[in-house]
Amino acid sequence: MLWSLIKLLVFVAVVAGLTIGGAYLMEQGGGAVIAMGGYEFTLSPLQLAIALLVLVVLAWLVLKLLGVLGAVIRFLNGDNNALSNHFSRRRERKGLDALTDAAVALASGDGRNALSRATTAGRYLDRPELTQLLVAQAAEMAGDTVRAEETYKVLVRHQRTRFAGIRGLLRQKLAAGDDLTALRLAEKAFEINPRHPETQDILLRLQAESHDWAGARKTLGAQLKSGALPRDVHKRRDAVLALSQAADVIDDNKSIEAREAAIEANRMSPDLIPAAVMAARSYIAAGNARYAARVLRKAWDVQPHPDLAAAFAEIVPDETPQERVKRFQALTSIRTEHPENRMLVAELLIAASDFTTARRALGDLPEKQPTGRNLTLMAAIARGMGEDEAVVRGWLTRALAAPRGPQWVCDNCGRIHSQWVPICANCHAFDTLSWKTPPAEATLPGGIELLPLLVRDEPKPADVPAVVTTEEAGSSRPATTASS
Prior knowledge:
Layout: H1 2-27, E1 32-36, E2 39-43, H2 45-76, H3 82-108, H4 111-124, H5 128-142, H6 145-156, H7 162-176, H8 179-192, H9 197-209, H10 213-225, H11 231-251, H12 255-268, H13 273-285, H14 289-302, H15 306-314, H16 321-327, H17 329-332, H18 339-351, H19 355-362, H20 365-368, H21 372-384, H22 389-401, E3 407-410, E4 416-417, E5 433-436, H23 451-454, H24 465-469
Antiparallel strand pairs: 1-2, 3-4, 3-5
Helix pairs in contact: 3-4, 3-5, 4-5, 5-6, 6-7, 7-8, 8-9, 9-10, 10-11, 11-12, 12-13, 13-14, 13-15, 14-15, 16-18, 18-19, 18-21, 19-21, 21-22
């Protein structure tokens, strides 16, 4: 619409300029006299301007005729392609000009102009693999998805443009949310060019979302072979896929296969917390407590986590709180100054009713790194030590406004997840969840509903309900869940 208005305004301006110029020349005196063959021609300024314009047009026509005449002469001299070459050069020149304009318009973001010029180039040039590709991209930019899809389908029929056509259709299906068709297209594109980085990433994501873990691991291997992934990243992501495959096997009640897959995932990436937890539980189910403890200690040394402590508690589920404190020393002696380690020790001691030592284990953590969890532990310690109810409520009030502490956070979009998953629920990125403290927030910590289990006396109804009713569903549990 805007382009049509601009062309109309330019046309009006040109007509107005010619009219004003003609009127000006008519008002001027003098002129030109041309004498030729005994004849004289007197021309006014306007007539002279018109004559010059006609002369230029005639000269241009003469040059064109001379070109055609030269082609005819060459044809008569035996060059059978002289005439066709003459006219094809003109068409090719026009087509290349239109193609250049289309490429420039496409790069500038002018989809409609690019589509128009690409269509023109297609009429002049016998290069469908080039012009059709520009037409498809221009139509896509202009919002004409129907024409873009039709053109991409034409490109798929030609061997040279098959990959480009499939990728174009793949982008359209992804934009439309048709992941099933997109997966099939990505597989075809991968067969044609298995070293293409973007195709590898898209295929891996789609395979992971559809739980095709075996196919995803093959794609990941192709990324390693093509140099798209460093070896350490490949090893980590392969472990994530193996872990996800193990989780699916567990859902299918195939215990032996799940155990083997979980152990394989932990072997490939010992620092992957969910893999360590699943492998440890697999060893526990097989009656191999020593291997389970070793796996958990190794993961704890890299990153202390409540799930590791919960799995460590499952090794001996029926022990007394005092026995558990003693057995857990094999774990808590590894990263003694880590906040998670200090809170775990405090939780174990609270369960064993050793409140003084529990307070000493927390140290200055509630003051320097306050979280809902350690402030709740302080409330439990205060109650266990016989502090006034106002002190207990004070700790609980602070816990309400304190941050939750480390959680599973997507490195790509910042989405917080209640538990680890291989694919972010928000941005669908693969292997982007990290156990870290998210941006400051005032939400309740996981496990606060367990406060009555951490103290000896039954709390009054007014003490805890406000804390419990605002707890978010599905939050992570502290390690005491296994020891209660």
